Inverse folding.
């Protein structure tokens, strides 16, 4: 059984990886005007947006759980 903490940390790791990929492709856009890189960067940004929503919900749920325990 995967713990909720592990799921949250996996989500955070995915976000970090996508930010790194987006950073590399964004640099290609500004350095070389690479159109394909701009498409990938926007795709990564959308994926990050979705993962951030999940991450925020998970963190909020965790805090509510802790607040209820006190």
């Amino acid at each position: 059984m995967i713990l909720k903490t592990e799921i949250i940390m996996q989500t955070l790791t995915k976000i970090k990886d996508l930010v790194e990929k987006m950073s590399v492709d964004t640099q290609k856009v500004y350095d070389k005007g690479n159109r394909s890189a701009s498409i990938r960067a926007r795709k990564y940004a959308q994926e990050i947006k979705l993962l951030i929503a999940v991450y925020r919900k998970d963190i909020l749920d965790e805090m509510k759980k802790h607040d209820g325990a006190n």
Q: What stands out?
A: The mean pLDDT is 93. The first helix runs from residue 4 to 32. Helices lie at 4-32, 35-69.
